[in-house]
Structure formats: C-alpha cells, structure tokens
C-alpha cells in the first residue's frame, strides 16, 4: 500500500488541496460540493464559492448555500448559468449534462481566474456523466476523486466537520434530470417537479423520491425510506396534476438513470 493510500481520507484531501494557492469551488447545494467548500475553508485555502441559480436548481438548495456561506464566512458569488439560452441544452439530448456544465464552467471562468473545483467523488465515475467531459475540457479539478474518496467518505467528512443535516442529504441531481430524454426542458415543468417533490417529501417523511416528466405524463418513483405511502402519493399527485392540467401516470420503484434513454445508467 502506498503512503497516500494509507492516509485517512481527510489527510489525503488536505494533501490534494495543498497543491493549489486558491480555488473556485462550484457549489450546487448538495452534500459533496458543500463539504468540499467547508473543508477547503477550514484548511485556510483562499476560496471563491460560486453557486449558479436557474430553473433547474431548487430554491432550497440556493437557500442552503447562502446559509452556509453566511455561517462560515465564505466569499460567495451567486450567478446565473445561461443554459436555458442554449438550444442544445433545452432539446434535452442524452448528453444534456454536457451542455449544462459547459455553460456553468464557462460562466465561472469569466468570474474568476482561480482553478475551478467540483465536488465529484469516486462513485460518480461509475455513472454516465457527460458533464465530466465538459469539466475535463476546461481543466476543472476534482479533489475528492484525486483523494480517492467515495460518497460514504464525503458524508463521513461532513459529519466530522459538524455539518449536521447536510451530511445526510439524499442524492439530489438538478431538476432537469427528472425530464425524460427527448422532452424539451421547460421551466414550467421544472417548477412543477420542485413543488411536487417538496410536497411528496413532506408526505413520505423523506427518503429517495423523484417526480418524473415522461412521455406518458407525470410519474413518481419511490425509493428506500419513501415507500409504504403509495395510496397517499396517488391522492396527492392526482390532485396536483389535475390542478396543473397534467396526466398522472402512477408510481413505480425508484431506478437510477430512468430518464436517460439510450445511455448507460446515470444518477438522476
């Protein structure tokens, strides 16, 4: 075993971060990027924390970023991404995330000359992640991956940093990931998804769940921690869909990559 492999994850991460005189961390509001920013800040690394807002980013994620920035004293920059101005993104091809990240990282590069860092971890390498191609083209660095850290390692680090509920946040990709490949990305659809998932989370008590925009209408996927309330989910979604003039296509078990027709599995 190499010396680096024998080190604890936090020590390996500190060594990786020590290579940089400063960083710009792209923070989405999820556990990975929030933990990276928190750890880098705790190490005293000069840091710009950049959060992008768009119809695909839940309002609660933005609120979470603002709250942590205020609590920890981050240099926070909130910006738009511009992906909705890109027809390649709105067309929602199987590699939509490539165009999303292209717009994001280009926007960040226009705001800072610091190296851009993402919160990607080793587990992300097992999924279909076209956004990582856009990152590689723009020399975005991935400190967790360089430090050999998995999602479990990131959550453990978040607990060690005292980040509380952030450490237990479920995986929560952007709202556009709820839209089946080939259905154009529409801000109204994303607003409906955000509302439905907020209401569903309150109803089920949490756990993994997704409100999906599919060719047949609207579907709900229930994963671990969110099952056992199918009848209540049916009643809620029938009400929400009726009020929005949408068709409710029923519930089904949660499945990763369900929206990405024609691609390998992807977290969504």
What are the SSEs and their pairings?
Elements: H1 3-6, H2 9-17, E1 23-26, H3 31-42, E2 47-53, H4 59-72, E3 76-80, H5 87-90, H6 96-109, E4 116-117, H7 130-137, H8 143-146, H9 151-160, H10 187-204, E5 209-214, E6 217-222, H11 230-244, E7 248-253
Parallel strand pairs: 1-2, 1-4, 2-3, 6-7
Antiparallel strand pairs: 5-6
Give an overview of the whole structure.
The chain has 268 residues and is of the alpha/beta class. The protein is built from eleven helices and seven strands. It has helices at 3-6, 9-17, 31-42, 59-72, 87-90, 96-109, 130-137, 143-146, 151-160, 187-204, 230-244; strands at 23-26, 47-53, 76-80, 116-117, 209-214, 217-222, 248-253. It has a four-stranded parallel β-sheet with strand order 3-2-1-4, sandwiched between helices. A three-stranded mixed β-sheet has the order 5-6-7. A hairpin with a 2-residue loop joins strand 5 and strand 6. Helix 3 (31-42) packs across helix 9. The radius of gyration is 19 Å and the shape is globular.
Strand content: 5-15%
The outline comes out as: globular
Number of helices: 11
- Biggest sheet, open or closed, and with what strands and sense? 4 strands, parallel
- Roughly how much helix do the residues carry, as a percent range? 40-55%
Order of helices and strands: HHEHEHEHHEHHHHEEHE
In round numbers, the mean pLDDT is 91
Per DSSP E runs of 2 or more residues, the count of β-strands stands at 7
What is the radius of gyration computed over CA atoms, rounded to a whole number of angstroms? 19 Å
Structural class: alpha/beta
Distance between the termini: 35 Å
The parts where pLDDT drops under 50 for at least 5 residues are 261-268
Q: Order of strands across the widest beta sheet?
A: 3-2-1-4
